[in-house]
Design a protein that fits this description.
There is one protein chain. Strands 2, 3, 4, 5, 6 and 7 form a six-stranded antiparallel sheet that branches. The protein has a four-stranded antiparallel sheet with strand order 1-10-9-8. The radius of gyration is 27 Å and the shape is globular. The protein folds into four domains: about 160 residues, no CATH class; about 240 residues, no CATH class; about 80 residues, no CATH class; about 120 residues, Tick-borne Encephalitis virus Glycoprotein, domain 1. A hairpin with a 3-residue loop joins strand 8 and strand 9. Helix 7 packs antiparallel against helix 12 and helix 9 packs antiparallel against helix 20. It is α+β, with helices and mostly antiparallel strands and about 675 residues long. It is built from 21 helices and ten strands.
Amino acid sequence: MIAEIGHYALILALCVALAQSVLPLVGAARGDGALMAFAKPAALAQFALVALAFGCLVHSFVVSDFTVRNVVMNSHSAKPLLYKFSGTWGNHEGSMVLWSLILGLFGALVAGFGRNLPPGLKARTLAVQGMIGVAFLAFIVFTSNPFERVFPPPTDGRDLNPLLQDPGLAFHPPFLYFGYVGFSIVFAFAMAALIEGRVDAAWARWVRPWTLAAWSALTLGIALGSWWAYYELGWGGWWYWDPVENASFMPWLVGTALLHSAIVAEKRDALKTWTILLAILAFALSLVGTFLVRSGVLTSVHAFAVDPARGIFILAILVTAIGGSLAMYAWRAPMLKGGGLFQPVSREGALVLNNVILATAAATVFIGTLYPLFLEAIGGAKVSVGPPFFDSTFVPLMIPLLLAVSAGPMLGWKRADLAGALQRLRAAMFLSILAIAAAYWFADRRSVYAALGMGLAAWLIFGALVEWAERVRLFRAPLASVWSRAANLPRASWGMTIAHAGLGLVVMGIAGVTAWQTEVIRLVRPGDAFDVAGYKFVFKGVTRDDGPNYHFARGTFEVYRNEKLYAVMTPERRYFPVAGMSTTETSIRTNLLADIYATIGDPESATQSGNMPAFLAPVTPQTAWTVRIYHNPLVPWIWLGACTMVLGGLVSLTDRRHRVGAPARARPADAVASPAE
C-alpha cells in the first residue's frame, strides 16, 4: 500500500506541475492576478506530493520491502541502516525522485519567500520551474517507476553497489543534486526575464542568492565526491578527469562565472544579456551531466549507465530545454537595453576577464569530455582523453585567472588605477615571493612549478586578507574604528574574503601533492620493514574476518617516526558476496600537513577460486602481499580549502541584502498620506 501511495503521489505531482506550467503564464500574459497567484499553491503542492513519494520510497528501503523491484535490485536485509537509507538515491529511479524533490523544494522556496518579487516575474519563474518539473516527473512516471512491484517477491535483495556503501557516497549525491537542480531556479528566473523582456539590477539581486546557494552546494558535492574517490578507490589520487567528474565540474565553472557576472548586472546594470546566457548554460550543463550519467554512453564508477531508451528520453528533455531556451535568448536578448559603460581597467573589467576565462575553461572541459563520445558515435575510432590533455589545456587558463582574483577586488568601479591597486597589494606580493623561495629551498628544489604554485596560492590567500584589511583600514585607523568597520562590513564582503582564501588553500594542496607525492609499491611478508618519506613501516601480516554483509582481509602496519610508534594502519580488501564485487578500503593517517595512505592488494601467486577473490584464497603465514603506500603532502588542504569556499558562500548568503531582495522604490509624492490622514 505504501508503494502505491508513493506512485499515486508522483502522478498527482505531475498533474499539478502541468497546471503550474500553464496557468500562471496565461495569467501573467493577461494580467490576471488570480491565475498568477495560482503559482504559489501549485509549487507548494508539487513539493509536498514529491516529498510524500520520496518518504514512501525511503520507507520501502528502510523496512526492506522486497515486493518493490527497486528495493530488490538495490538493497539487502543485512545491509547497515545508513546504506538502506542512502540506497534510496543510490540507484537511477530513486535518484530521479530525489532530483524532483529538490526541484520542488526550490520552487516552494521561491513561492514561500519571494514576497518581494513582482507578481508577473514570480508567476513566470514558477511556471518555468513547473515545466522542468513536468519533464522530470513524466520521465519518472513513464520510464523509471521507482515503485514497480515484483511478484513473487524474493527472500532477499541483490544489495547496493558496494562502492556506494560508504558514508561519503551517502551524502555526496544530495549535495550534488542540490547544486545541479539549484541552477534550475536561476534558469527559470532567466527565462522569465526573457519572456518579460526586462533585466535590471533588481532582477540580478533576486538571482544572486539562488545562484550562491546552488554554487555552494555544488562545491560541497564535488569536494565530497573527490574525497570519496581519494579514500575509497585506492589509487592515491583525488581527481582523474573522469567524464562524470567533469559533468559536475562544468556547471560549477559556469556557475562561478554567473555568480560574478550577476554582481556587475546588479551594481553597474551591465552584462545583462551575458548573465542571462550564463544562467541558461549553467542549467544546460547540469542537464548534460544528467544525460551522461543515465544514458548508458559512459562506463564509470559514478554512472547509473544502464538503459539507452531512458537516455533518449533525457536527450529529448535536454534538446527541448537547451534548444528552446537558446532560441528564446536569440529572439529576446537583443531587445534588452545595455547598461553602464566602463573602462577595461576597472572592477567590471576584472569580472569580465573572470567570466571569459571561466567560460573558456568550461568549453575546454566540455570538448575534452564529449569529443571521444561524439567521435565514437559517428563511427570513428575510440580515443581516450585523459589527464594529460586537461593538464595541458585547463591549467594554463587558470593561471591568469588566479592572478586576477586578488587584484580585481582592489580595483574601483567604472575606471581604476591598476598600478595603485598593485601598490596596495605589495605586502601580498612580498609574501608570495617569500613563499616561492621557501618552497623551492625547503622542498629539495625538486620542482620549480610546485614553488610557483605555492606562490600563487599565497597570492590568493594574502591578497584576500589585504583586501579585507583595506576595507577595515587595518593599521591605518584606531582599533575601535577598525573593529566598528569590521562589524559593519557586509557579510557578502566577508564571504568573498573567505572564499578567495579557501581557493588559495585548494591551490596550495594541489601544488603540494602533485609535486611532492611519494609512492611505494612492493611485495612484503610479515615482519618486513621499509621506509617511505622518512617513516618506517613494519608489516605485521593479514587477518581475515566477516563484516555485516561482506568478507574482508585486513593488513596491519606499524608506522614509526624517529623510532617512536606513530600510527597503526589497517587497510582492507572487502568482498560482497551478494553483489559479487570487491572494494578497497584504504587506511589514512593525517596530521593536516600530509597524509600517509596505505592499501593492500592480492597475495603473491594466489588465484581466484570460483567467485571468491584472490585475497580470500588460502595462503601460508609467510605469503607475500602487494602493498601500496603513499605520502601525500598538503593533500588535506584541498578539501579544507573547498570547505572554506563553501563557508564563504554560506556567509555571503546570510547577507541581509540577499534576504530583502531589491530595495523598495520610493512612492510618488501624491501617494504619500498627509499627516491629517
